[in-house]
Amino acid sequence: MILGLDYGFMRHALLAASSIAVASAAIGYFVTLRRQAFAAHALSHVGFTGAAGAILLGLSPYLGLFAFTLAAALALGLAGGRLRERDIGIGMVLMFALGLGVLFLNLYTANAQAAMSILFGSIVGITAQQAALSLGVALACLLALAGIYRPLAFASLNPEAARARGVPVRALDLLFIAVVAAVVAIAVPVIGALLIFAFLIGPAAAAQALTRGMARGVLLAMALALLLTWAGLAAAYYIGYPSSTWIASLSFALYLAAQFMRPADAPDVAS
Fold first, then answer.
1. Rounded (10°) CA dihedral 153, 154, 156, 162
2. 108 in helix, strand or coil?
3. Pick from 36, 11, 3, 33: nearest CA to 196
């Protein structure tokens, strides 16, 4: 059977990875447009610390992952431009979070493998419950994004004009970073905290290089993410090597190809 779908673990992997890829690409389009890639990357590492802390307390690492990622996102959103737009501040938070993660793993090493899997992901290790959770959270994130699409697009392109027109930019910032945190939290167990950009940034950056319209760009990013996810799973099944490695490699190749195919008059928003 194609992609080994007669096996349960492959069906779970396909469902979880496909739903996360589509949601990550749509949200990633705005992440790259708003130049918040580093903040999104930091959230994934904060999630790793939450997972390690939850293991230390005897809780589910996924509970700690969600809680820490959402808490960090809300802190960044409340800090607004004073912190969100400063790489140094985000970098310091990232450094502190990773230090705590290492400390938690040092204090409790009995189940350290679970936390380490958060760093690199385990697509074929996804259970039916995790796949269903991924689908549900991905749909909720897409619905939330659709609900704020027009004001978010306006505020992302010209926040000063949006604020002058009465758009609640601060509330939009807070809601959007919370949606980013939710999609990062469900993506990390699949692709890993270190490879989160494969879903979140690669397809979105390629779409921005290939098309100028925002709506067309979001749809193209979602389609590209879905294709590279299926290609990565197929390559891992038929050739071997980890699925996350294939997906990350294909995402990188997609980004490079899009840069070469970029129209001369396309805006340079992906760099």
1. -150
2. coil
3. 36
pLDDT, tens only, 21-74: 999 999 999 998 888 888 877 887 787 788 778 777 877 777 888 888 888 888
HSE of 253, CA atoms in CB hemisphere, 13 A: 11
The pTM (predicted TM-score) of the whole model is 0.83
The alpha helices in the chain, defined as continuous H runs, are 8-33, 37-56, 61-79, 81-84, 87-107, 112-120, 128-147, 149-157, 159-164, 169-191, 197-200, 202-210, 214-238, 243-261
Q: What is the dihedral of CA 124, 128, 130, 136, to 10 degrees?
A: 120
Residue pLDDT, tens place only, 4-33: 677 778 888 888 889 989 999 999 999 988
Give the Cα separation of 12 and 20 in Å (integer).
12
Distances (CA, A) of 134 to 12, 115, 130, 168, 191: 10, 19, 6, 30, 12
